[in-house]
Structure prediction request, 608 residues.
Amino acid sequence: MKKYIVVTLFFHLVFSQLSAQEVGLNNLYNRPATSLNGIWNYIVDPYENGFYNYRYEPFEDMKISGKGAYFTNAKPTDKSDLVEYDFDKSDTIRVPGDWNTQKEKLFYYEGTIWYKKSFDYHVTRPLNRVFVCFDAVYYEADVYLNGKKLGKHTGGFTPFNFEVTNLLNEKDNFLIVKVDNKRKREGVPTLNADWWNYGGITRDVSLVELPETLIQDYFIQLDPLNNTRISGYVKLNGTTVNQQKVRVKIPELNIDEEILTDNDGTASFAMNHEKIVYWSTENPHLYEVRIQAKEDEIVDQIGFRSIKTLGTKILLNDQPIFLKGISIHEESPFTGGRAHTMDDAKQLLGWARELGCNYVRLAHYPHNENMVRLADQMGILVWEENPVYWTIQWENAETYQNAENQLKELIGRDKNRASVIIWSMANETPSGEARNKFLTRLAETTRSLDPTRLISAAMEQSNFEGNPAIRTISDPFAEVVDILSFNEYIGWYEGLPEKCSEIHWKIDQNKPVIISEFGADAKFGFRGDSLSRWTEEYQEYLYVETLKMISGISQLQGISPWILVDFRSPRRVLPGIQDGYNRKGLISSEGNRKKAFYVLQHYYKDKK
Ligand code: GCU
Prediction:
């Protein structure tokens, strides 16, 4: 087997640009860690009394914050001392987990809650570095260790971490997090969304200890320009990172390459191999990849595959594929709150597999990493989405920066996952000059960070030249994306299911088309005729009529109907039917399959 180290200009340019991006510590999933999950104390603070003094001045900005600031974890020094809070005597809550479904009094709570965890920590080797790592905190987190501000993170669905090497004590450390889930007009997502505003430390928290020179990030994929070449980069962090030896091993391919880092600590590489077993939905082959640099080593499981479009086709490893999908919200089928465990992922993707899916749309925000790790193992293709949802503030520079940061963190986390094939920029955003620029910038950033995947967004369909009987995609963003995706609700929000038979589709762009949403609400067990709203029969009828209608779209290469499971939403209040749930699930919130489940299952069984 002839091996070449061929550093292609293309990849070197891309990865050197990547290495110029300021990224946090990435790819932590396989790192040994000290978990800080478990029982934390918490204080509900709707007036943010623990953050501002009575003149609404942040305690942080004051030289002496006194004993009012909750992040100092103050204790009375004697019997006369005035301290008006005490974490250790406050109620406790489980981390990870949203607060809404853990505490009845917090079900609708939107505001600030302070979390505190005390712990001892012994650094195992002198000069080692220690990081505190959060897999996600919804929505804004101000983080303090032993009274010192580590930093702030905005965005509720992506990982972040802070170095705490010189701040840790052997005993009695206290980690305090101010969590604020208030919806904000300038937020991403913004004030209005059709899902529950779960707040809290919703995913794992851990301490990761690493050598002084560490592997900060890596990106290892099949080269999109040559499918007999594995290309990528490894980025080091530490005091001496230039001209350092890095080894990349893929034992099963007898690959063991030694490469040198450049001045900013990045080592790019490309290795040719004639016998790569491509990752696919039929054979989701994952290779063990070992990366070593000085005393640091990390092992990952990576699948090598190509995904591209050719005209109106989507090609997986150069073979056309139809994406038999379903949309999924990140809700636990067991607790009803934010999903985060591997068991949650197994249940949700297990249901998708039972439906006959080879693809899922993880809506409308980055789901926890267990979902994409499991999808890698099961051979399920994934659409991941940035929470640019509905009426974002397109003109607000901070809103754009927030959206871009969340997208970078998502790509940073999942860029080595073979199952992830589509980065979605947005969902159902109204076309307009500012929005088009906003989304186009996001798409350009995405392509610069990851040239190996496809870009899409759930757009909206519209009448062709004003004729409601002919539908098309007239969104200017259609020029930017690789895959044309749109949501349509003919038969639910627009007419009755029979209306589907009156609609024709005229899509002129020479690109693949995905219908990213269609569906209808049905309360499980509510039976009647197919025109009685909310019955299982109505939902079933809509699926039958929609599947007939879309067979007329020649470019159609995939669908992800809305949605796998009923999910909580404060917008859905019809007593006896919705009761705080969006009922478009094919499976009820209690796990019962509705009649439409079997319509889609049958369609996928016959679909080639
Ligand atoms: C929209 C939106 C979903 C929403 C769904 C519905 O298309 O994308 O987030 O839940 O319609 O109205 O049920």
